[in-house]
Structures are given as C-alpha cells and as structure tokens.
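Appendix C reproduces, verbatim, an entry submitted by the partner laboratory led by Prof. M.T., so that reviewers can inspect both the input and the predicted structure.
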Amino acid sequence: MEKADALNMSRAGAIRKTGFRQLSVYGRGVGLLWILVHLICIPLAGADPLPLQIEKKILRLIESNAVETAISGHACRQTDGYHVYLIDNFDQTIQILPGLQTSHGNLICKMLASGRKDIRVTPLNTGLSQGLARVIQALVDGACIDLVLSATPGSNYTYSQISSLFETPVHLDHTNILENRDRLKQLIVDIAVHGFPSVRWLERADINSSKLRNDAIKLLFIETLGRFKVPVVLPYGNIDTRYRGDIRHVNLMSLSENARVFSALDRNNKRIRGYPYSPLSAGEVKAEYRVTECPVPGRPFQTRVDVNEDGWFDYVVEHKTIQFPDDSINGSIDSPAKSPCRKQGWIIGTSFIVPHMVKQMLPLKK
C-alpha cells in the first residue's frame, strides 16, 4: 500500500479503543485415488478490475470515521432467516465422484443448504481481503448480515517467524501464545494502520513483508466486522509446506476474538498429523467426511449423493449406465443411512468444518 493509504498516527488511539486449504478429495474405485486441489449459489460478481481498490477504499472509510458512523446507525432484525456471506473459489472445478464435478465454493454452498432453508448465502468469488472489504462496504451501505465464512486457505506462520516480529527478543510457542495474543494482535493491526515500524525492523523480521501486510489488513477488517457484531468463521488450514523445517502453526486471523478459526480432527477424532494447530484455535472438529451414493427409486440412471454424513442429499447425479439394479431397491429411500447405498471414499479438509460450525452457530429458525 502507498503511504497515502496508511492511516495517520492521530487515528491510532481511536482504533485501539474500538477494539480493533487446500482441499483433499479422494474416492475408492479400483484402488485409492487421491486428488489434491489447492482451491477452495451462483457467485456474485468476479474479481475487481483493480484488485486493491476495494481494500484501499475500506481503509479510507475506517480512517475517515465513516465506518464508525455506520456502526452507530446499524440495526438489523431478520426474523425469517439468516444472511451469510461466503468467500470462496467458484472457478476451479474438482471431481467428487465419476460424473460429479463442482467447484469448492458450490460444494460449501451445498453443505450450508443441507437440511436448512433459513440460511441465505451471498457468494463472493474472490480472495479473503477483498471479500472482507466487500462485506464491510455492504454493511456501511445498510445490509443486514449475520455471519461471514471463508473457506480460502489460512494465513499461517511458524512460531519462530511470529517471535521475530517483536522489537524486544521474545520466544513464542504453544505455552505462551495465548498470554501474548493481545500484544501480537495490536502489533499486526498497527502494521495495517501505519505500515511497518522501520527499515531496520523489516531487515530483522523473518517474514515476507507483502504477505504480512496483506494479512494485517485482513485482521483489521475482521476486527472491524466484530464492531458490527458480524463474526467470521474460517478454517485453521491444511497441510502446508514447512518453513525451515517447522509447521506453520500460527494462523494470524485467529488472533481476533471475532474470528472462529477451526482446526482438524480425523475420522477417529484425532488430530491430523502435519495439520497446523495452536491454542488460538476456536476448536478441533472432524474434517474427514464419508461420501455416500444412493439410488433414486424408479430412476436407475440417477443417484443421490450425501457428501458430509449429515443424512441429507446434496447432489443428484445423472449416469450413462444403470447404477443400481431395480431388484436391489426395496421401497423408497429417504436418507443415505438406508440401504442399498455405497460408500464412495472421503472428502478431507478444514474448509469442510466451516459450514458445519456455521449451522451450529445459527440456531434453526422455523
């Protein structure tokens, strides 16, 4: 960001006062097939012509107190359901089963809608910083929004990298990250507001400066959404490349109390080896789900698919050949739990935790 876009020092006190991944899909056929995709309803408009313009605009709104004014006059009461914004990738396609291709964003939409008719989704086909900026703009314009979820990859760093950000030498690890949470959050927000402390600081800090500045802006935006009382739900992150041999265990977004950032358990409710985790995690939730395919009575070329073990069908698939012989179907099939159905492997990823937790956070409205 240019200096003209960094917020001036006179605003710092006001901002402090206000309180400011990957997806693994695999199925079983002749053998075990792994499809690894670094991805992530019809999405809202695509990317902005100038990708950084919306972030710059929101930073100016925060600086000018326009956001403060919008917060003071913001009041929404929605009795007929919930309005949720989903930030995700709706462009790249993945194959869940033979004959069933979709985007990661569409898959998350299906999981949100599964068993729920009271959740209205506004999809944002963009990255996290742009998506958060668009949500803030919508709130400033008077929109009623109950929650934001993102299934895009996390912003993770090693403990050593985070430790290098402090002027005074400090060693952060899982034993003391919580007690340093507020101090670290204020440092990151200050970077979003004022830029980096000095050239000397940049030379010493063991980080990618562009990535850190972008992540700092994301954190500031999540804090701003907290002032609108709009929580943000995110995945903690999947297996990532290690940095100097260490797992990137610290997701910067989890520094905000307004962020609910969930880490992964396997099908046996054990932590998945190699996945990031820290005490900053909002919780550990199962991130492996069995895909089940069941016949449609009277339609031998169609099957219905439940992707996340919740007992609701998410997709209907048209096949070129008969999938279940008529004599194998005994009566109507209302739920994937009833036979004849077949198990079709697993979908794995912390992004699949997010819709599950969103539905827990938003009680069913009848």
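The radius of gyration is 22 Å. Additional entries are available on request from the coordinating office.
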